[in-house]
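Homework help board

Subject: predicted structure for assignment chain

Our instructor gave us this sequence and asked us to write out the predicted structure in token form, then describe one feature. I got the tokens but I'm not sure how to describe them. Can anyone check?
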Amino acid sequence: MTDAVLLLLLFLAAMLYTSVGHAGASGYLAAMALVGLAPETMRPAALVLNVFVATLASVRYVRAGRFSWRLFWPLALAAAPMAFVGGAVQLPSQLFRALVGVALLLAAWRLWLAPKTLPDGDTKPLDEVHPPPLPVAILCGAAIGLVAGLTGTGGGIYLSPIIVLSGWASLRTTAGVSVLFILVNSLAGLAGLATKAIEWPPLLPVWIVVVLVGGWIGSELGARRLATPKLRRLLAVVLVIAALKLLLT
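My token output:
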């Protein structure tokens, strides 16, 4: 029963997150927390799922024309080495749970309270991109990369609101940039984790298949159609419950 619940939660996380240009790591972490997985298993598993889903979503967003290389490259160049450093750091269990709990609350805030930073529609042309000054992009990318590596996420929940609220790109272009940024960070974080022994869950191959199906559906919604705000808010509630479990137990 627990395995079936986890599979359903992973599927929903992948579908809903890819619809807004994310790969779902915070959702996967929430699902694993709810079923009681150990922290040393959660971080590498979430990153692996992120890599597969972000790869799929990146291809779909780029093909749909929802991407800007000018905005992407300085952010990713600064983030990748810091994500590697964060991934290589072995955090105490309680500190890891606290960091992930805070990350889940931030993700829930994005999904529930900030609908204008999600791609329900664009008010700017797709090609209207205003990249930040290079020092700003490098500082932003490095900070997000470090947090992403430490928590086992791709950093998209931090990057996409910054892009939109700063006016650097349109909503759907933000989604495309964010998902490729997540892929780079997830790979770098995994490389950092690989410097130490990794404990893999036995059902990880099944999880990969499930999130790929969810990611295919979600990225289609995000790249070409509209995502569903009500479902996002439902996911936000799940994230809050998981965050409280991590923070209070």
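Reply (TA_rk): Your tokens look well-formed. For the description, you could write something like this. The radius of gyration is 16 Å. That's the kind of observation they're looking for.
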